[in-house]
Specification:
By secondary structure, the protein is an alpha+beta fold. It folds into two domains: about 1-55, no CATH class; about 65-160, 3-Layer(aba) Sandwich (Cytidine Deaminase, domain 2), CATH 3.40.140.10. The chain is built from six helices and three strands, in the order ααααβαββα. It has helices at about 10-20, 25-40, 60, 80-90, 120-130, 155; strands spanning about 100-105, 135-140, 150. The protein has a three-stranded mixed sheet with strand order 1-2-3. A hairpin with a 5-residue loop joins strand 2 (about 135-140) and strand 3. Helix 1 packs antiparallel against helix 2 (about 25-40) and helix 4 runs parallel beside helix 5 (about 120-130).
Length: about 170
């Protein structure tokens, strides 16, 4: 699914995105989220709108998304970061310019502390990036994107385990 930048999303598009969430969101929650996103568009509908340009970078068309999958057997769950990295690596992509992690309670207004990758996903990011040589930024945010923090993999995993830690045979 290709994402339209938030400020350009129509009500129908926003509703379609939120109706696709699993588990399904309550209707009143979807209505609140639609209203929140549409309020952001007010800058376009002023009597004297703010001048701006929208440039959709080619990378946006190649964005890999993942979703978490919970299992009643906890070790069998799959993190969204792991799913997105796996999809990219399957397509032969390992050269990322940045990684974004967004999460939180879908039953809330979406505002809260930024969600960071779990320890296993931090290690996966480190491995896919080829270690600390490419210290790619990892942007972490809450669902409403009201709190965004920039980290590097070195910040998130300062004592990473790497192939150099393995014994030689």
């Amino acid at each position: 699914m290709i994402n339209v930048p938030g400020i350009l999303q129509t009500e129908e598009y926003i509703r379609a995105i939120h109706h696709s969430y699993r588990p399904a969101l309550p209707a009143e929650n979807i209505d609140a989220r639609v209203e929140f996103r549409l309020r952001r568009r007010n800058v376009l509908e002023r009597d004297v709108p703010l001048p701006f340009k929208v440039i959709v970078h080619e990378a946006a068309l190649r964005r890999y998304k993942g979703t978490f999958f919970e299992s009643s057997s906890f070790p069998l769950g799959i993190c969204a970061e792991s799913a997105a990295l796996s999809a990219a690596v399957t397509d032969g992509i390992r050269d990322f310019t940045a990684i974004a992690v967004v999460g939180g309670d879908p039953k809330s207004d979406g505002q809260g502390e930024p969600v960071t990758p779990c320890g296993g996903c931090r290690q996966r990011i480190f491995d896919v990036m080829g270690g600390f040589e490419r210290n790619v930024p990892v942007f972490c945010a809450d669902l409403a994107l009201s709190h965004v923090q920039r980290f590097t993999i070195r910040d998130l995993l300062p004592f990473a385990f790497s192939a150099s830690d393995l014994p030689t045979m």
